[in-house]
Amino acid sequence: MIKKYAQSRNCKFQPSWQTNRPWLGFDDVNGVMTFSVCQQFSRDNDENAFVKGTKYLRIDGIKAH
Fold first, then answer.
1. Which helix (H) or strand (E) element contains residue 19?
2. Residues ≥6 apart with Cβ < 8 Å to 39
3. CA distance 28 to 41
4. What is the pTM of this model?
5. Distance of alpha carbon 57 from alpha carbon 13, whole angstroms
6. Which helix or strand (DSSP H or E) is residue 26 part of?
7. Secondary structure (H, E, C), 27-60
8. Which of 33, 40, 54, 57 could be stapled to 49 by a disulfide with Cβ–Cβ 3.0 to 4.6 Å?
9. What is the reported pLDDT for 1?
10. Exposed, middle or buried: residue 50 (CB in 10 Å: 0-12, 13-18, 19+)?
11. pLDDT level of residue 7 (50, 70, 90 thresholds)
12. Domain ranges in the chain?
């Protein structure tokens, strides 16, 4: 369950997250974050959020993945 304060937060992609993470990408047009390594090794039907692109723009998601 997402905590109430987290629902109201306006998270934005931080370019500093790409430091030492050359595989981390961000699409400004669609506002989604992707991992190039995940995209490179994905299958055609892969539903992984980091392959398709995710709007979950938080550093903890990057670190956990």
1. none
2. 50, 51
3. 23
4. 0.69
5. 6
6. strand 24-27
7. ECCCCEEEEHHHHHCCCCCCCCHHHHCECCCCHH
8. 54
9. 47
10. buried
11. low
12. 9-64
